[in-house]
Amino acid sequence: MRYIYIIVLSIFVMSAVNAQFKVGVHGGAPVGDAKDVYKSSWGINAYYMFGDEKNALIKFGAGAGWIHYIGDEFSSGGQTFEIDDASFLPVYLAARIHFLGLFAGLDAGYAFGLSDVDGGFYWKPLIGIGLFSILEIDLFYHSIYPGNGDISSVGLAAYIRF
Fold it and tell me: What's the CA gap between 69 and 152, in Å, rounded?
């Protein structure tokens, strides 16, 4: 039993040495069902990725964030109506494939609704580039499926690696 404990502890210590924490901000334009309802989206994300980027082709991790969609307004019958903002807390697993400083990846999990909008399945494919060993820029598409259509956007994100 003691040997199993030592092995598990060693794996966690070695993982922590090669782990990478990063935080960032993103902004985007709503697409699909959301483009007629929301003006823009923005938010923050944090990731904890395992593996040394210089030596690992594939990296895995987990993350969480906050996404805020700004409601639009529309006119009908001479009256103007304003759509409420929507906020989500996505919690997800992440995978990245690195090659020559570029990467492609996928985040998938669940986005909890923080406003009157329900939560749902969350996924985010992305492509990006790592710069100066501390900065990461990516283009993404993220989508949330609360059950009655999707809330999606395309955008740009910037992350600082620690």
Answer: 10
Q: Residue 66 is encoded by which pair of tokens? A: 């906050």
DSSP three-state, residue 117: coil
Q: What is the pTM of this model?
A: 0.81
Residue 53: what are its φ and ψ, rounded to 5°? -55, -35
* pLDDT computed for residue 54 by the predictor: 61
Domain 18-161 CATH (choose: 2.40.160.20, 2.40.30.10, 3.40.630.30, 3.40.50.1110): 2.40.160.20
How far apart, in whole angstroms, are the C-alpha atoms of residue 39 and residue 88?
16
At 18-51, the pLDDT tens digits run 458 999 999 999 999 888 889 999 999 999 998 7
Report H helices in 44-125: none
Question: Token match 């969350």: residue?
Answer: 122
> Distance between CA 3 and CA 22 in Å, rounded?
33
24: CB partners within 8 A, 6+ apart: 44, 45, 46, 136, 157, 158, 159, 160
**Residues 6+ away with beta carbon under 8 Å from 117:** 86, 88, 146, 151
3-state secondary structure of 18: helix
